[in-house]
Amino acid sequence: MFAPQGPTLRELAVQALSSVERGYDLLAPKFDRTPFRTPDAVLAPVSRALRELGPFDSGLDLCCGTGAGMGVLRQVCRERVTGVDISAGMLAAGRARAGVTATAPRVEWVRADARALPFGPVFDLAVSFGAFGHFLPRERPELFAQVHSVLRPGGRFVFPIAAPARPGSLGYWTLLAFDAAMRVRNALWHPSFVMYYRTFRLADVRAELTRTGFDVELQSLPELGRRPDGSPRCRLVVATRAR
Known about the structure:
Elements: H1 9-16, H2 20-27, H3 40-53, E1 56-62, H4 68-76, E2 77-85, H5 88-98, E3 106-111, E4 123-127, H6 140-150, E5 151-162, H7 170-188, H8 202-212, E6 214-220, E7 234-241
Parallel strand pairs: 1-2, 1-4, 2-3, 4-5
Antiparallel strand pairs: 5-7, 6-7
Helix pairs in contact: 1-2, 3-4, 6-8
């Protein structure tokens, strides 16, 4: 699962016993050599879908990490692309990885908590990849309200969401075991490290986005295949700020 240049078992253990912010600061130099980085197999179909929805002037990558989603935004935004993350280490790695370019769009990296975004309603598009497990269910309404507040009317909040693993499957038991281990870890060790894979359920998320003031549509991502029952393995949530 990890490249030879990726983190050692000891480094992963130290990260797991740290806070979310400190843990990612430690992991940042080797993050792109782990399976935690959003793979190109997911980024490419999202890019295709956004090109069909766009173009956009300004885009925000929420919890951008080292910038996998920033590359998507640079393909569909004409003027400004902003990545925001709480980890200074991840932002530094993202800046170094992206390098300096004089071509449009303008790229910015901002350290901030996604639950307290330091922007007005200046974005046409917000995306996020793989970060929602770091927020407890009770935190999601405020998180979604923050995204709503930084989008212009008609702006879109877009993110992929995978179908849940089938009960009894290897993926189901793996995710169940991981979440259980995290709950035990957080009960016994502080600071907590919030990362739960099974709490971000589509029906709940859709209802919360609607209550926040978004009109929500779902698109399939056919490039990522279908389950045995014919349903998509991954959907794209397209939430439009209605007011």
